16S rRNA aminocarboxypropyltransferase (Methanosphaerula palustris), 164 residues
Amino acid sequence: MIPLYAYRDNSCDPKKCTVKKLEKFGLIKIVTTIPAIPRSTLILDPTAEQALSPADRMVRSITALDCSWEVLDTGAFTSFRLHRALPFLVAANPVNFGRPFRLTSVEAIAAALFIMGEQDQARAVLAKINWGIRFLEVNEEPLDLYAAAKDSAEVVAIQATYLD
Ligand SMILES: C[S@@+](CC[C@H](N)C(=O)[O-])C[C@H]1O[C@@H](n2cnc3c(N)ncnc32)[C@H](O)[C@@H]1O
């Protein structure tokens, strides 16, 4: 099991917030200041240069930046060493259904867990959201391929077959 964190700046509507649901079940710790984020964590950053891969599986924790897309400023997190972007996957949430790359925090966390070999934890996290398990269904093929890759270069090569 990999410890999960979400940094929340309250720019998202708390009623629609996916990580708050996980917090209720004790599956994630929400932090509201940048210094409270563990230094060694892997930051889920859509602007990161390196794609997340099974080679990241030894991480100590995963942190989602749970801000609204409009205000997300990944520049505020440059002091963290580990930033990873998720490869091509499509959203299953009702707001962005079918849209590639723009995942909710819970979808992003579940995808990272799945690719790192923590499939049971990924399912447990998604099971707390109404439409959650749908994310695994619509992304079944790419998730299985990414999880079987050796490293980031292989993940990027697999992603290219979907972007063609
Ligand atoms: C911008 S917030 C939006 C939160 C949304 N309102 C919710 O309730 O979940 C989504 C976060 O999930 C992670 N994320 C989403 N898509 C991602 C991707 N393609 N690569 C890496 N991280 C991603 C990032 O941490 C990102 O900041």
User: Anything to note?
Assistant: Residues 4-163 form one domain. DSSP finds six helices and five strands in the chain. The longest strand covers residues 4-8. The pocket of S-adenosylmethionine is lined by residues 12, 16-18, 44-46, 64-67, 69, 72, 85-86, 101-106, 108 (CB under 6 Å).
